[in-house]
Specification:
The protein is mostly helical. The chain contains four helices and no strands. GO terms for molecular function: DNA binding.
């Protein structure tokens, strides 16, 4: 199963031995609910620009990599 670009970027932003597991604080920080974020990661929904910016900011990824 191929990773979606957002999933790849999140994995690249984390240390090699750490797997991303969203927390309640993460959802609050990025302003995306659990259900929607799951669909974005699976590629079922296109994220909005403000959601991409929030994800990039949270993981300290240049937003240009997500656009």
């Amino acid at each position: 199963m191929a990773l979606t670009p957002i999933k790849e970027l999140i994995n690249d932003a984390l240390p090699a031995n750490l797997q991303f597991k969203p927390t309640r604080e993460f959802y609050k920080s990025v302003g995306i609910n659990k259900h929607r974020f799951s669909k974005i990661l699976k590629g079922d929904l296109e994220p909005q620009r403000n959601e991409l910016q929030a994800i990039a900011c949270h993981f300290n990824i240049p937003v240009s990599k997500l656009l």
